[in-house]
Amino acid sequence: MHLRQFHLEGLGHASYLVGDERTGEALVLDPRRDVADYLAEARDRGLRIAYVLDTHGHNDYLSGIGELLAAVPGVRALAPDTGDYGYDHRPLADGETIELGQVQLEVVHTPGHTPEHVSLLVRDLAVSEEPAVLLSGGALLVHDVARPDLLGDEASTRESAETLLRTLRDRILTLPDHVEVYPTHVAGSLCGGTIGARLSTTIGYERRTNPVIGRALAERPIEEVFGLATLPAVPPYWHRMRAQNMAGPAALGGLAEPPALTVELFAKLRDGGAVVLDTRRTEAFAGGHVPGALHVAIEGSFATWAGTVLPDGAETLLVLDRAEDLWEATWGLLRIGYPPPAGWLVGGMQGWRTTGMDVEGAAQLSVRQVAAGLTDGTLTVLDVRQPDEWAAGHIDGAWYMTGADVPGRIGELPEPDGRPLAVICGGGFRSSVIASLLVAKGRGDAATVVGGMGAWRAEGLPETTG
Fold this sequence. Notes:
Largest sheet: 6 strands, mixed
Structural class: alpha/beta
Strand order of the largest sheet: 1-2-3-4-5-6
Number of strands: 22
Helix content: 25-40%
Number of helices: 17
Radius of gyration: 24 Å
């Protein structure tokens, strides 16, 4: 049996190619939209991709099923028979098996994260009839399970949570301890609240250490079992992803290289309504950027935060640290449903400056300045971290709004009163994103707190909890 995991750190996503090297048949599970890595792995291993399957209709990225159907002659799409899919597929029933030579994949219906969710229980029959691996999607994660609150109101969330509880009890925890678990959602994904850093685990290890399972076995209240009150906020673009995945994302086809743009053409497109997205490091952005630019550094969770601040379908213009970052940024946008950038600024900010164009700086405040400003009432603090981070410790008197909520709730923030609005997160990445959005929306009083709550704590400054 050949099993290969493909880890995409920025989205907290893992996908898989599993196959039998003797017969050459393989399946790709939960593919991302850029499928070249799967094709290369299959080619290197002498495998033929025969099937492609999503464990569920994803909320956090666009599936690569359409890309593989277009790229691989004869590949067949599979899908759970409990889902309402809009693309041609072979439906899979609970308990059905997919035979790849001596590799057997048993379909296990594991609803809760979504109603149609399935996992694949893998057996290498050349070795044993014992199950070896669970490709768990979101049914079981490392140190966590996938959230049950994405598809509706409070009542439907509770129903999904109860379903997920039954899935854990009746479908997951009945498996032998030795079974290895490879999830789709890994550290960095907002599909869980406390996902561990490892990329795989075992049933036995999770049975003994997973806090969600521990609370479930202790029969704690269901809201407490799944930590519903402190789950991460949902980025705005997620509301579009599931419907597109269930319908079947269209294949991208041949992608043209986003063009290098002169300062004059870049400025013309910006003035025509394109959104400038600056992907440089926080310090570089603060030192000077194109006026009105949004800032999402290419490091870290680029796609998640680009999807948070960019309008749906936005035409983007990129400012890059390095020309070689172009396709990383482009794929980051394509993976979450945005069109390719209209182009990128040749020569970067140096080129922009040398033509005499206006440059805007980003206000930054040290934690000592923030502490002094709170004491004398000369600034307001806006904390944009996740609910569990806020509950664990925050600055007394700070306003709180998760970064994912800010784009739709700017009008609820305190009115500008001449005092800086000091935006703080854990380390400075998210606060720079949100401050750039606020400035672009007319809140010129927004400033980033350098080092965030990490620096605040390092200075021994006071905080409160709850």
